[in-house]
Amino acid sequence: MKKSVAALLILVLVITYLAFFQIKKIDVTVFSGYASNVSQSTIASNLKTSKNSNITLTKINDSQNIYQRGNNYYVGEDKNNKIYLDVPVYNLDNTRIWNYLDNNYINESYYDTDTISNIIVADKKLFSNLTNDNIDNESYLFSKLNSEIYINYQKITLSLVNETIEIPEYSLIYFNKDYLNFYMRVNDELVYQSIPFIALTTGVKIGDNDLTYENLLTNLGLYNKEEENKNDDYKKDDDKPNYDKPNKDDDKDDDSSDDGYEIIIDDTKIIPNINGTPGNNNSNNANYVKPEVIFDGFTGRVYSATGSITINDPAMRIVTSPTFTLTLNGKTYLKKSFYANGEIELTGLLPNETYEVEAYYIFKNENDQSVKKTFYTGTFKTLDSSSLNEINISYRIDNIYSNGLGNWALLTFFKKKIYINKKGNIAQSCKRNNVKIDYTENIQGESFEQFSKYYFDPKLKMYEEISAQKVCEIWKHTLDQLKTNGQIKLLEEK
Question: Would the pTM count as exceeding 0.85?
Answer without folding.
Answer: no
